[in-house]
Amino acid sequence: MPASKLKVVVTRRLPEPVETRMAELFDTQLATDDTPMDHEALVAAMQSCDVLVPTVTDRIDSRVLSRAGERLKLIAQFGAGVDNVDVATATQRGITVTNTPGVLTEDTADITMALMLAVPRRIVEGVKIVETDGFAGWSPTWMMGRRLGGKRLGIVGMGRIGQAVARRARAFGLQIHYHNRRRVSAAIEQELEATYWESLDQMLSRMDIVSINCPHTPATYHLLSQRRLKLMKPSAFLVNTARGEVIDEAALARMLQAGELAGAGLDVFEHEPAINPRLKKLANVVLLPHMGSATLESRIEMGEKVIINIKTFADGHKPPDRVIPAML
Ligand code: 8YV
C-alpha cells in the first residue's frame, strides 16, 4: 500500500515537526489533546488503522490486541521500552512491533547522572533550603553529602544506556561494575574499565551506588526484590531511570524510611503516574516525573525513527527497529 494511504493513529501529542511530517506522509490521525486514550478509545483506534503509534502510557495487552482490527499490521512505539506492549501476542497475530532505540540514550544517561549527583550531594534539599529562606550562612559541618569520586557504581543492564552512564560516571571518578544478561565485549569492558559480575547478588552487596538501566521484561520484574535490596550496603544509593517495575517500590520505600539505604533517585515508578506516598516525604530521595528522554532533540529524533519504521514497512521492507519477542 502506498504510504500516503496508510491510516496511522497517534495516541498522544508529539512534537510539532513530527506531527507535521507524519501528516504529510501518511493518512494520519493525530491526537487532539494530550491525555492517554482509555481502553475503549484504544480499541477503536486499533480497529480503524493500519499503524498505531502508541507510547508508554498505552497498555496494549492481549485483551486489547484480541479486539484489534484485521488491518492493523504495525505498532510503531514512540519510545525505546516496549513493556506496555504484549509483543509476543502482537507477533502471533501478524502485527509487527517497532521501537525507537539509540536516539534517547545520551539524554537518559544525563538524567541518570543528574540523579546520581543530586542524591548523595543533597542538591534538591539545598535548593529547598534556599527557597524557604533557610540559608543562614556557611557552616563547616552543614549539608554534608557523600563524595562520588572513588566509589563503586554497579550498573544493572549494560546496554546502550548503561554504557553511556558508565562513560559519564568514569569522568566523575567512579569505578564501573556491571551485571548484564550477557557479558559485553572485551573491548567495551576495557574502554570502560568495567568489572563484570555474573552474580547480581554479589555485586549489589559491594556497591556504593546502583543504577538500574535494564528494560522491564518478565525476567526483570522486581529484579531488585526486597531480598536483593537488603543485600545493599546501608550507605548505598539507588538510581532508577529504566522502569519502576524493576524495583519492589514498596520495599524500597520502607527501607529508605527505616534508614536501611542511604538514598534513592527515581525517574520511573512501579505504578506510574502514582508514586508511593512514603517516597515523597523523604529528604534523601529525589523524584522526577519520567523525564529521561524529555529533550526536544530526543523527542524529535524518536519521532523520526517512528516515521522511518512506518515508511520502511509501507515500502514492503522490514523496519529497522523491529522488536523480536525472543530478544526480550
Ligand atoms: C519515553 C522511555 O519517553 O523510551 C522509553 O522507553 O522510557 C521514555 O523516555 C517513553 O517511553 C515514551 O513512550
Name its key features:
seven-stranded parallel sheet, globular, binds 2-keto-D-gluconic acid, five-stranded parallel sheet, alpha/beta, 328 residues, single chain, Rossmann fold, 34% helix
Q: Note poorly predicted spans.
A: none
Task: Name the overall outline.
Answer: globular
* Sheet with the most strands: spatial strand order: 8-7-6-9-10-11-12
Biggest sheet, open or closed, and with what strands and sense? 7 strands, parallel
Query: What are the distinct ligands in this entry?
Result: 2-keto-D-gluconic acid
Q: Quick one: how many beta strands?
A: 12
Q: How far is the first residue's CA from the last residue's CA?
A: 30 Å
Report the CATH superfamily of the largest domain: NAD(P)-binding Rossmann-like Domain
Q: Strand percentage, roughly?
A: 5-15%
Q: What class, by secondary structure content?
A: alpha/beta
Q: Determine the number of helices (DSSP H or I, runs of at least 4 residues).
A: 13
Radius of gyration: 21 Å
Report mean pLDDT, rounded to a whole number. Answer: 97
Q: Specify the CATH class of the largest domain.
A: Alpha Beta
Order of helices and strands: EHEHEHEHEHHEHEHEHEHEHEHEH
3D architecture notes:
The protein is α/β, with parallel strands linked by helices and 328 residues long. The chain folds into 2 domains: 3-101 and 295-314, Rossmann fold (3-Layer(aba) Sandwich); 105-287, Rossmann fold, CATH 3.40.50. It has helices at 16-25, 39-48, 62-65, 87-92, 105-118, 123-131, 160-171, 186-192, 200-204, 226-229, 249-257, 277-280, 296-314, and strands at residues 7-10, 27-29, 51-53, 74-76, 96-98, 152-156, 175-179, 194-196, 209-212, 237-240, 263-266, 285-287. Strand 7 (175-179), helix 8 (186-192) and strand 8 form a beta-alpha-beta unit. The two termini are 30 Å apart. The mean pLDDT is 97. The protein binds 2-keto-D-gluconic acid (8YV). The site of 2-keto-D-gluconic acid has 9 residues, from loops.
